[in-house]
Amino acid sequence: SSTMSLSEAEVQSARGAWEKIYVDSEDNGTAVLVRMFTEHPDTKSYFTHFKGMDSAEEMKQSDQVRGHGKKVFSAINDMVQHLDNSEAFLGIMTPLGKKHATQLKIDPKNFRIICDIILQLMEEKFGGDCKASFEKVTNEICTHLNNIYKEEGW
After folding, report:
1. In sequence order, which residues have a C-beta less than 8 Å from that of residue 84 and are 6 or more positions away?
2. Closest alpha carbon to 141 in 102, 113, 105, 103
3. Is 17 within 8 Å of 133 (Cβ atoms)?
4. What mean pLDDT is predicted for residues 94-119?
5. Cβ 138 vs Cβ 119: under 8 Å
């Protein structure tokens, strides 16, 4: 049974695209966060350790930023592995969404921001086809997170 709205072929090409960026998950995860914090400085307010950091260079060197970048990429990697199994996919998404909604109180618009930056990075490094084949996945992720937020009363 294919998931959500992705065909088998789309799942395969999305995995291929993700694979390319996931190979360097720590560096690429860090690059995504640094870009987010630099271009959307309000997103830093959720991370107490990152608040005082203003320069991209300083953020890039930070163990906390690197650690969180790796964590984000590893969570997405789990989702990508389960794109063809709705139940497993939601099994990963649901606790993650709930935690961000209730404990961390992260505005859900930030998920769209981070997904868009991942797509930008894919395009810069690997071209438009790579980005295009991952776009549907980011839409699924954001849609499901928004639904979880709604259930949590956002």
Report:
1. 1, 2, 3, 6, 8, 11
2. 113
3. yes
4. 96
5. yes
Which pLDDT tens digit goes with each residue over 39-64? 999 999 888 888 788 899 999 999 99
CA dist 4 → 8, 75, 91, 102 (Å): 11, 18, 14, 25
pTM of the model: 0.93
Helix, strand, or coil (residue 153): coil
**In whole angstroms, what is the distance from residue 94 CA to residue 111 CA?**
14
The fold of the 8-152 domain, in CATH, is Globin-like (1.10.490)
Provide the 8-state DSSP code for 22: H
How many beta carbons lie within 10 A of that of residue 141, not counting itself?
23
Give the tens place of pLDDT for each residue, 23-40.
999 999 999 999 999 999
DSSP state at residue 42: G
- 8-state DSSP, 103: I
